[in-house]
Structures are given as structure tokens and as C-alpha cells.
Specification:
The protein is α/β, with parallel strands linked by helices. It has a single domain, classed as P-loop containing nucleotide triphosphate hydrolases (Rossmann fold). The protein has helices spanning 17-28, 35-44, 48-59, 65-76, 94-106, 121-129, 169-183, 185-192, 205-217; strands spanning 6-10, 32-34, 85-88, 113-118, 131-134, 140-142, 161-162, 196-200. The strands form 2 sheets. Strands 2-3-1-4-8 form a 5-stranded parallel sheet, with helices on both faces. Strands 6-5-7 form a 3-stranded antiparallel sheet. Helix 1 (17-28) packs across helix 9, helix 2 (35-44) crosses helix 3 and helix 4 runs parallel beside helix 5. The termini are close together. The protein binds BIS(adenosine)-5'-pentaphosphate. BIS(adenosine)-5'-pentaphosphate binds at residues 11, 13-19, 35-36, 39, 56-57, 60-63, 68, 89-90, 92, 96, 127-128, 130-131, 140-142, 145-146, 166, 175, 203-205, 208.
């Protein structure tokens, strides 16, 4: 079992970052820090930050770095993040990655590394279009591969399951393009100083989770 507790989950939309990050964070006893979920919470509670982020998210564009970085910096000051975090959807630009390294270093920590989940495009689209999430507790389902026990209701809290507002075909295409141009350069960023683990993201959720544990246990 890995003792690494500061890990970035990297990969295109639908790669399974959120699914695996939630499981890994629970296993490690550290928070799952998903910038997408933090933004959706702000949108749902109609904060000023949420109103600013909403327009970018609906288009499939990235929220500006300044807004994202101050939100993450605040999240990392919470006591539960002292022992580490599994980052999901963050960083998404080289500027965000540099800022994360700096914030961790300022607190005497370092990122253990980034895991790149590799999944072909047709599978990404199938995963995203079948996704549903719980409006109450944010748990994620897939209509075919991880369906809820009772249709349209969350197994965990009974909340209503919904589509994500940015999961329509046109916005997904835009998100995939934005990933290629703005986020994919992080692969070289982390590879350069040997902090990147590439792994196959295909297979069942359990199979990918087992592969992830093997990757993180490597020297
Ligand atoms: P965000 O919420 O981070 O979305 P994303 O990166 O596009 O990723 P997804 O959540 O779509 O996919 P995932 O890889 O987490 O897959 P999941 O596990 O859900 O960001 C949304 C938006 O917020 C961005 O577009 C941007 O506007 C903004 N934003 C967020 N962070 C930002 C940042 N740092 N900077 C600027 N802007 C930012 O799985 C997908 C589906 O597949 C689910 O249904 C799941 O059940 C299923 N599934 C997962 N694994 C498997 C498997 N092994 N087998 C079968 N099905 C599976």
C-alpha cells in the first residue's frame, strides 16, 4: 500500500479521475480536492465565485487561473488537508502546477507525483454521456457501468440523480480540445522531473483502482 499522500490525478474529461480520486482519498484518509466539484458547489449556492465560474464551465473553457488558485489555496489551509490530498482536475495549466508546487513547498511539503489515466476518445465520450451525479452528495454513477440500485436515486443518500450541465455533446467536444491544448502540456511538465506515472484507465472501476495502487506502490 502506498504511503504517498499528495497525488494529482491527470487525464482528459471522462478518464475516471473523479471516480478513482474519491476512492483513493478515502483509502488514504486525505481529502479529495476536485476543483470541478468546488466550482459546482459555488454555482449551486450562487456565490460570486460561482457566478464567475459558471459561464466558463458552460462553454467548456477553463476558469481563469487566478480564481482557481485562490479557491484551491483556501481549500488547502483547512486542517483536513494537512496530511495530504488527492487532486482531481487540478492543476490544469502549467501555471497552476507551478503554483501548487510553490504552495506545498511553502508549507514544507512536496507533490509525490501525477498519475495520467490514459483512455481512448470513444470510451471517454461513452463514459461522459452515461454519467449521472447526485445533486445532494455529488456521488457519480454511470447508467450502464455503475448504475444506482434504484433508478434516478443516489445509493448513498437517496438524492436525485442529474446530468451535468457541461456533459452535452458540443461542450464535451470543447472540453476535450481544451484538455489537449491547455492541460496536456502538464504531462511533459511532470515527466521532466520524473513525477509522472502513466497508466491504462480502461477496465472496470475495481480493475483500474487495483492498477492505481500498484503504480503508487512502485519505487
Ligand atoms: P471537472 O469536473 O474536473 O471535469 P473534467 O476534468 O472534464 O472531468 P470529468 O469530471 O468529466 O471526468 P473524470 O475524469 O473525473 O471522470 P469520472 O470519474 O467522473 O471540471 C469541470 C469544469 O470545471 C471544467 O471544464 C472547467 O470549466 C472547470 N474547472 C475544473 N477544474 C479547473 C481548473 N483546475 N482550472 C480551471 N477550470 C477548471 O467518470 C466519468 C464517468 O465514467 C462516470 O459516469 C463514471 O461512473 C464512469 N467511469 C469512471 N471510471 C470508469 C471505469 N473504469 N469503467 C466504466 N465507467 C467508469
Amino acid at each position: 500500500m502506498s504511503r504517498r499522500t499528495r497525488i494529482v490525478m491527470l487525464g482528459p474529461p471522462g478518464a475516471g479521475k473523479g471516480t478513482q480520486a474519491a476512492r483513493l482519498a478515502t483509502r488514504l484518509g486525505v481529502p479529495h480536492v476536485s476543483t470541478g466539484e468546488l466550482f459546482r458547489h459555488h454555482v449551486g449556492t450562487d456565490t460570486a465565485l460561482g457566478r464567475e465560474a459558471d459561464a466558463y464551465m458552460r462553454r467548456g473553457d477553463l476558469v481563469p487561473d487566478g480564481v482557481t488558485l485562490s479557491m484551491v489555496a483556501e481549500r488547502l489551509t483547512a486542517p483536513d488537508a494537512a496530511a495530504g490530498a488527492v487532486f482531481d482536475g487540478f492543476p490544469r495549466t502549467v501555471a497552476q502546477a507551478i503554483a501548487l508546487d510553490q504552495q506545498l513547498a511553502a508549507n514544507g511539503h512536496a507533490l509525490d507525483g501525477a498519475v495520467l489515466l490514459e483512455v481512448p476518445r470513444d470510451t471517454l465520450v461513452a463514459r461522459i454521456t452515461g454519467r449521472r451525479f447526485c445533486a445532494q452528495c455529488q456521488a457519480t454513477y454511470h447508467l450502464e457501468w455503475s448504475p444506482p440500485a434504484v433508478a434516478d436515486h443516489c445509493d448513498r443518500c437517496g438524492g436525485d440523480l442529474r446530468w451535468r450541465a457541461d456533459d452535452d455533446e458540443a461542450t464535451v467536444a470543447r472540453r476535450l480540445t481544451v484538455y489537449e491544448t491547455e492541460t496536456f502540456p502538464l504531462v511533459a511538465f511532470y515527466e521532466t522531473d520524473h513525477r509522472l506515472w502513466r497508466m491504462d484507465g480502461l477496465g472496470s472501476v475495481d480493475a483500474v483502482a487495483a492498477r492505481l495502487e500498484e503504480v503508487l506502490a512502485r519505487d
